[in-house]
Design brief:
With 224 residues, the protein is of the alpha/beta class. It has two domains: 80 residues, Methyltransferase, Methionine Synthase (B12-binding Domains), Chain A, domain 1 (Orthogonal Bundle); 130 residues, Cobalamin-binding domain (Rossmann fold). It is built from nine helices and five strands. Strands 2-1-3-4-5 form a five-stranded parallel sheet, with helices on both faces. Helix 3 packs antiparallel against helix 4. The longest helix is centred in the C-terminal third of the chain and has 24 residues. The structure holds cobalamin (B12). Cobalamin binds next to helix 3, helix 4, helix 5, strand 3 and helix 7.
Length: 224
């Protein structure tokens, strides 16, 4: 019996050394041994990508290596993701999600999407490098309560502010959540967003709080 820590280490090492087969084997073993697939994704795969980020920052890795690491991570996610138990109690709401225009970083966005999905939300995923207007159009098409945007570069992050202005003009009731490495709570407040979460782990709790605040607001408006 291989311990949980050993398998999570194999997942993380496999992502860092872009060893897809090692990641696939360890992911399958996580399931065979009955360990928590969500924990394996966060403490194994995502933890490995954080190390990749450091190697990139230290110019030990460049775009080609990082791309292969991302492929290894997704190979593990494809095996583990379907086994993450879904909170099928009741649909908590609808979320439009995507990585903003000019930005192709989607690993973080896909982990947040997964958390909303298993958290019982209906998720409308626009993907990456999403034209700013598409967030507005998809929110109106689906009447989603939450619009969640991801950006991983300081340059592309500025597009979030434009989306918030466009959506709030059309429908001030929509709750807008921001996230991504360069995004902070202060930036989110400055841009006029309704919420921010540092990681996928607390994105759903923040989402539920935002919808709660929104519904309270509507109640007050009705009574007024
Ligand atoms: C992987 C990666 C890539 C991959 C992306 C593969 C993919 N499918 O995503 C590739 C190789 C394609 C890439 C390309 C580039 N990259 Co790059 N990349 C990274 C790297 C190493 C890791 C990012 C990652 O996936 N982390 C792991 C995930 C799990 O963490 P995360 O993304 O931070 O997400 C978590 C939180 O932020 C949060 N979160 C994220 N989104 C959201 C959204 C919401 C709503 C919420 C609530 C939370 C949330 O929750 C997530 C999970 O907990 C980072 C380094 C770093 N330190 O971040 C550089 C980095 C982001 N890249 C960078 C750059 C500059 C580039 C390139 C321009 C390089 C080049 N010269 O070509 C290109 C740009 C391409 C483009 N147009 O977007 C810079 C950005 C600098 C800046 N601040 O602007 C970084 C910071 C590296 C560096 N230090 O310079 N990159």
């Amino acid at each position: 019996m291989t311990t949980k820590q050993e398998l999570f280490q194999q997942l993380s090492d496999g992502v860092v050394e872009y060893q897809e087969d090692q990641v696939k084997e360890a992911a399958q073993q996580v399931l065979d041994e009955g360990y928590d697939p969500l924990e394996a994704i966060m403490d194994g795969l995502a933890a490995g990508m954080v190390i990749v980020g450091d190697l990139y920052d230290r110019n030990e890795y460049f775009v080609p290596e990082v791309l292969m690491c991302a492929d290894a991570l997704y190979a593990g996610l494809d095996i583990l993701r379907p086994h993450v138990p879904k909170d099928a109690a009741q649909v908590k709401g609808q979320v439009v999600i995507g990585t903003v225009q000019g930005d192709v970083h989607d690993i973080g966005k896909n982990l947040v999407k997964m958390m909303f999905d298993v958290g019982g939300f209906t998720v409308h995923d626009l993907g990456r490098d999403v034209p700013l207007e598409s967030f507005v159009e998809e929110q109106m098409r689906t009447d989603s309560e939450i619009v969640a945007m991801s950006a991983m570069m300081t340059t592309t992050m500025m597009g979030m502010k434009k989306v918030i202005q466009m959506i709030k003009e059309k429908n001030p009731d929509v709750a807008i959540m921001l996230g991504g490495a360069p995004v902070t709570k202060d930036v989110a407040d400055l841009f006029g967003a309704d919420g921010y979460a540092e990681s996928a782990g607390n994105a759903v709790t923040e989402g539920i709080k935002m919808i709660g605040r929104l519904r309270e607001l509507r109640q007050k408006e009705k009574k007024a």
